[in-house]
Amino acid sequence: MFRNRIDAGRRLARQLSAHLPSTGSDERPVILGLPRGGVPVAAQVAAELDAPLDVIVVRKLGVPFQPELAMGAIGEDGVRVLNPEVLAATRVSADDLAAVEADERAELERRAHRFRAGRPRQPIAGRDVVIVDDGIATGSTARAACAVARAHGAARVILAVPVAPSDWTERLGDTADDYVTVAAPDRFWAVGEFYDDFRQTTDEEVVRTLRAAVTTSTSSTGAASSSRAATAPAADAGLDPPPAQRDEDVTLAVGGGTDAVEVHGHLTVPPAARGVVLFAHGSGSSRHSPRNRFVAGLLNDAGLATLLFDLLTPGEERDRGNVFDVALLARRLSDATDWVRRRPDLGALPVGYFGASTGAAAALVAAARPGAAVAAVVSRGGRPDLAGPALPAVDAPTLLIVGGEDHVVLGLNRDARARLGGPSELTIIPGATHLFEEPGTLRAAAEAARDWLVEHLAGRAVSG
Question: 202-229: per-residue pLDDT in tens?
Answer without folding.
Answer: 888 888 888 877 654 544 434 333 333 3
